[in-house]
Amino acid sequence: MSVQRTPWLAPAVVVAAVVLITAGFVIGGPVLGFLAAVVAAVTIVTIAIGPGRPTLAAGATRRLLLAVLPAIAGLALILAGSGTAEIIGWGLLGVALTIAVSLVFLEIGYGEDRERARR
After folding, report:
1. 50 exposed, middle or buried (CB, 10 Å; 0-12, 13-18, 19+)?
2. 8-25 pLDDT, tens digit each
3. Cα 13 from Cα 19, distance rounded (Å)
4. Do residues 45 and 17 lie in contact, with contact meaning Cβ atoms separated by under 8 Å?
5. Largest Cα–Cα distance in the chain?
6. Residue 114 DSSP SS3
């Protein structure tokens, strides 16, 4: 199924993500808020990539691995720590997801540039 891209779609997706994440934090605390953020991030990336969009280059996998290190450190702090260490772990995990989503969008832009250069 293809999502038709209209000018209002991007802001609407961002508003929906903010509402979803905020509701998750208010209703269920950090755990539900974080899960809502993951759902929102996956949805945004899925819409951005969509069918017919350029695919990721081979070097993209190495760049995406940059997000793995803070994610591993964050998970270790969440599982092993308590109090401040656990909060820092959640922060690191959030940073890792932000890096991953940002790099996906960067790679999409690179793919579009390569496609434009071929034309």
Report:
1. middle
2. 766 777 788 788 888 888
3. 10
4. no
5. 55
6. helix
Question: Model's pTM, two decimal places?
Answer: 0.53
Q: Extract the tokens encoding 104.
A: 């996906």
Indicate the helix (H) or strand (E) that contains 61: helix 60-64
Query: By percentage, how much of the chain surpasses pLDDT 70?
Result: 79
For residue 110 the two structure tokens come to 């690179």
Is the Cβ–Cβ distance between 40 and 20 less than 8 Å? yes
Q: Among 65, 93, 64, which Cα is nearest to 77's?
A: 93
Q: For 62-78, what is each residue's pLDDT tens digit?
A: 777 778 888 888 888 88
Helix pair angle (68-80, 84-118), 10° resolution: 160
